[in-house]
Write a structure and sequence with these properties.
Layout (H helix, E strand, L loop, with lengths): L19 H31 L4 H10 L2 H5 L1 H10 L2 H24 L5 H30 L4 H26 L5 H20 L16 H14 L1 H31 L3 H30 L1 H21 L7 H30 L5 H29 L2 H20 L26
Helix pairs in contact: 1-6, 1-7, 1-8, 2-6, 2-10, 2-14, 4-6, 4-9, 4-14, 5-6, 5-8, 6-14, 7-11, 7-13, 9-14, 10-11, 10-14, 10-15, 11-12, 11-13, 12-13, 12-15, 14-15
Length: 434
């Protein structure tokens, strides 16, 4: 918990742009997101083009990026609730910077290999678990519950802006420099992010050690809250199945664009940037969308958009339209739907959860919804090897269709406001990345 009140008092409508500590968190997040997107762009290309990775190896590499959420996701929440979240963010940034610096040195020395990239991805994944759980648990105490939608919208806008810039920049840079140089930029960005977060002044006071209970008890309490909250339970099932579907696609999409469609790295960067443009638009408009149609309805409607937009990716191989047009259109529409969905559901779960359970609740959610991703990545790699890349992408679309059912076939479509959340009229308007 925190001892200092947020600079913007609850009930006020001032923009978080005027909140000094949020600006520091926002700056650190922006730098980290840019670096992370450059790495996410460079590592698969390094594996496919320079190391000749197979479909299965790409599935394993993708799985490694999310494996820690499945392995340590649950205890991480209890640990974060016992630690100062600002310090956790800083340490996670520095660990990621160190690992990526080692990847650069190894690659430049000519000793890079797919197993080496997998090990690095596993370590980075572990640090990311702690960063993400601490990050989502830190925002409510930093900005106040009345400003959650605006805060989450701004952070989503930053993430989407990084996704717009990084692939386009990476595609251009890879024409003149090697992938390790992009990874080196990431390492530097994590260090600068740690410095920015380190300048946050809000003081955190940890609960007394005497109040701690056995780790198993605290983990169970977080899981129990997620499972017993009826709307949150449906949202978690939807998100976990969506992530499973997305990971199936992610395992083969680089091979699909670079080998099957033979579009090249610049075109691949354009496709990723288009998806990020859609996400940025969603982040900017998320507050207005939830105000107009309601937070409750926003979640299932956004989920229902995901499968049709994802279907445009395998359709790009049919010749119905230029492949790049279908990929760009599908990416932009999918990015919009995913980010609007995320802003609505993350804001809801942050408000509905008691502050003392935030770390454990977020870790429990991440364990369930991100824990499916390594499974999906391995499934995608296996399917790509056995039945081919295009059928694997269609299988991902089918899973995405099933994912929407838990929220589409529920009372959420009839609800404007969700229980436990502030009413739409009381929610501050979000203008995105102002």
């Amino acid at each position: 918990m925190t001892t200092d009140r947020p600079t913007l008092a609850p009930g006020t409508t001032g923009s978080l742009v005027h909140h000094p500590d949020f600006r520091r968190l926002w700056a650190g997040d922006a730098l980290g997101q840019l670096g992370a997107q450059l790495t996410a762009f460079a590592l698969p290309i390094l594996a496919v083009q320079q190391l000749a990775a197979s479909e299965w190896e790409m599935g394993v590499l993708t799985a490694a990026e999310y494996a820690a959420f499945l392995v340590i996701g649950l205890p991480a929440g209890a640990w974060v609730d016992r630690l100062r979240k600002r310090r956790t963010l800083i340490v996670a940034d520095l660990v990621r910077a160190t690992v990526l610096a080692a990847v650069v040195v190894t690659a430049l020395s000519g000793h890079a290999s797919v197993p080496m990239l997998v090990v690095a991805a596993l370590v980075v994944s572990t640090a990311t678990v702690f960063f993400d759980v601490a990050h989502q648990s830190y925002v409510p105490g930093l900005v106040g519950l009345d400003h959650l939608v605006e805060g989450n919208s701004k952070l989503q806008a930053t993430a989407s802006a990084a996704q717009v810039l990084a692939p386009a920049l990476g595609g251009l840079l890879l024409r003149v420099i090697a992938a390790p140089a992009l990874i080196a930029v990431t390492a530097v960005s994590y260090v600068v992010s740690a410095v920015a977060v380190g300048r946050i002044r809000q003081h955190e006071t940890l609960p007394p050690a005497a109040e701690r209970r056995p780790l198993r008890t605290e983990i169970a309490e977080g899981l129990r809250f997620v499972v017993h909250q009826p709307y949150l339970r449906r949202i978690v099932v939807c998100t976990s199945l969506s992530n499973l579907a997305g990971a199936v696609s992610a395992a083969v999409v680089v091979i699909y664009v670079l080998r099957t469609l033979d579009l090249g790295t610049a075109a691949f960067g354009t496709v990723l940037s288009a998806g990020a443009v859609g996400g940025l638009t969603g982040a900017v408009l998320a507050g207005r969308v939830t105000q107009r149609i309601g937070e409750g309805r926003t979640i299932p409607l956004a989920a229902l958009l995901m499968a049709p937009t994802a279907a445009l990716t395998p359709l790009a191989s049919t010749g119905l339209a230029p492949a790049i047009v279908l990929l760009v259109t599908g990416g932009a529409a999918s990015g919009f739907a995913v980010v609007v969905y995320n802003v609505a559901q993350v804001s809801f779960r942050q408000r509905v959860c008691p502050p003392r359970l935030l770390g454990r609740m977020n870790a429990s959610v991440r364990f369930i919804v991100w824990g499916t991703m390594p499974v999906g990545a391995l499934l995608g790699g296996w399917l790509g090897t056995r039945v081919g890349v295009v059928p694997t992408l269609w299988a991902s679309v089918g899973l995405m269709t099933l994912a929407a059912l838990p929220v589409a076939l529920s009372p959420l479509l009839r609800l404007r406001d969700l229980p436990g959340a502030t009413t739409v009229a009381d929610t501050p308007r979000s203008d995105g990345a102002a």
